[in-house]
Each structure stands twice: as structure tokens, then as C-alpha cells.
Amino acid sequence: MAGPAGMRLSCRYPRRRFGTSPKLSCVRVLVIGSGAREHALVEALRRDPGVSAICAAPGNPGIAQHAQVRPVDPCSAEAVVGLARELGVDLVVIGPEVPLVLGIADAVRAAGIACFGPSAAAARIEGSKAFAKDVMAAAGVRTAHSEVVDHPGELDAALDRFGPTWVVKDDGLAAGKGVVVTADRSAARDHGAELLEQGHPVLLESFLDGPEVSLFCLVDGETVVPLLPAQDHKRVGDGDTGPNTGGMGAYTPLPWLPGDTVAEIVDEVVKPVAAEMVRRGVPFSGLLYAGLAIGQAGPAVVEFNCRFGDPETQAVLALLDSPLGALLHATATGTLAQAEPPRWKDGSALTVVLAAENYPARPRTGDVISGADATEANTEVLHAGTSLRDDGALLSAGGRVLNVVATGADLTEARTRAYDRIARIKLPGSHYRTDIALAAVEDRISIPARV
Questions:
Q1: Region label for 385, one of left (φ > 0), alpha (ψ between -120 and 50) or beta (otherwise)
Q2: Cα angle for residues 342, 302, 317 (degrees, 5° grid)
Q3: Lesser CB count within 10 Å: N end or C end of the chain?
């Protein structure tokens, strides 16, 4: 990989063996993306002694403190492949969903470079909710009843077939913000009409009961390896109030989740979907994210994503005790079945998102951020939407600006550390939720009795 002076970086680490997987030596990694998820990936890769060099494109100022960054368009196959070749990387890791849906992983693999991320055909599991529903139906996986509406004249009659709680989604990619869940029929209709006016098909779903769980699984064809379950907080305000966002915080593990639930989700949801993708000739390779509601009838799928989720990744990777590069490389090269299972640190991890004024609507940007650079034990500040001014000042440059990630012996300690740290970061007009994981700490989350 090229260094700041254009020289290729030599390998710093001896060959080492991870489990029974092929030997991994001096892996040079290119991470595609610019948010806190990618910052978390870079930090975890830095802890892997089998990774010799890391570059991020386009990256962000936080990532640039510890890795090379290059101003490359993540949605340009030509630019990504060109950079990967220039740097001589062994592995490309694609963070965001849009490049995956556009087929950037296909282009990287066609160039003979290992890539962590599904093909465009497999990424439809997130890119088209109708496609995902079809896959789940064929695989016999429980999910909400749904109906696609693609004409304004059909909207009212379709809404009459749902409720009393309406779930109205953009059928395509919406960065987590294309969903309205409401008991107000007029609000559901307004959102559906707005989507249709923009030319987007609308997906109506029945409401699923029970608390939600995010489960990340490394998937290599029909091989499925789960990571820790997490819970995201989508609404902008405390008490799950206000509009949906890309996520305001997350925590892991989930003290209220029965110990056998992850195995149940893997066996009844993820493995059947992975097998169905193989059967269709579009095997999944990468990170398959299952968002589920744990209700009276057991786990039911709310949605699938084709990549690491944001902000859950930040919490999950904070507890990873295995070499991340080895896991991603094994997935990308079809050897996940031979890889050593992930190991996890004891305790809990929590991430809180610092958002700009007016987020999730059009955020205010360009304000100076202070207090983000201090280093403290058991906490880290990850950059999501930031930029640097010519004089070196750190500025806000997006809706979700920073993430504070903290670990502790339990959720109470992790919460205390995270909120102590975020309180010392100053950004005019910024806001954050004060109740991330609070319901879990206060034992206010329960799973409905099975029927």
C-alpha cells in the first residue's frame, strides 16, 4: 500500500494462523466509506496484527489520524478499482449500501481483488424490499404481511387493508429514514403519497409486536457466523419520539434477550435466506444484517440490510476480541467455514450519536466542534459527518456528526462513561438522546409470551 510519500508499505507482521483458515500475512485493506461505521471498522482493523496497512476512501478527519485517506468517489467502480490497484491492496471492505447496490463489489472482484461485500444481485436484499419479501416467502421466513403500491390511485384502498398501526416504507434505499410507523392514518397516507410523488414505490406492512433486535451475520454462501446482537434507537427523541433517523445510538449485548434466541434466528431466519439466495444463483458474501421483532410468535424479520449497520457496528466491534481482518478476509475468499469463531470481550458497549441542529431534516453544518479530541480510557470518539477547515479546526459536515462509544463491566457503567464523554463535546445546536439503553438498564424491556 502506498504511504504518504507514494512508497508502497512493506509488511510489518510475520505470518500467523487464525484457527484452521488459510494463513493470513500482511493484509493491506482498503475501506470504502466516510462515516462512523467506517471509522469503527478502521479502528478494529488497526487492532488486528495480521493487517499491515489501511487506507480509507474517502474517509474522514477522524480516520485520517490513524490511516491513509484518499478522496475517491465510493460509487465509482472505476475510481475504487483504480485506487485498489494503485495501492496494491489484498482486501477491499465496502461499508455503505449504495456502492454495494450499484455493483462496486462486482467490479472489485472482477479485477481479481478480494472484496468484503455482496454482489449487486445479492445486495437487492436491501435495495428492494419487495425482492427481500419474495426471498423470505420462498425461504419460509416469518415477516410482516406486505403490499407494494406503485400508483397513487391505489394508495387509499391499500391503506384500508392495514392498520390500526400503519408501517409505510420506501421500497428502495432510504438510509433508515424512509419509514413511518404511525397510528395516524392521515400521516401514513401523507408519507405514502410523498414517496409516490417522488417516483418511489411504497411498501405497506403489518405492524410487528415485540422489541427489535439487530443481528449481524457474516455470510459466505450457506455458511453463517453470527456476531453479537444489538439494539438500535431509530427515533430522534428520548422515549422513541419524533421521526425516524439513521440511528441515534445502540448497545450490545442485550441482557433481556434469552440466550438461545441468536441460534434460533440463525437457524430459522438467516440460514434459510442464505440458502435461498444460493438456490437463486445470487449467493450472499459479506455482512447480512437482520432487523427483527421478537414477538409472541417468535422472531420475525422487519428488514434485511446488506452491510454493517450504523450505529450498531460501533458498539459491536468495541467488544470484538478476534482479529477483524481475518474474519472479513475469510468471508471474502470463501473460507469462512474454516475460520476461528469470533471471540468477545466481557462487559457491555454503547454508542451515542451527536447530531447536528435540525437533524434528521436538513442539518445545519459548518460549525466548529470542540472537545472531541481528548483521549480517555474505555471511550472513543468516532467521526461520522466532519470536515477540517484550512486552519485545522474541526467542523460539522453532516446530520450525524460524531459517535461516542464506551465500554464497561455492564450497561450502567458503559452508559455513564459515554454520557460523561459526550457532555464535554461542544457543537452549537447539537442534540443527542439521553436514554440509549436506559430501558434495558431499568429492566423495562420484555419479550411477549410465546403463543
A1: beta
A2: 25
A3: C
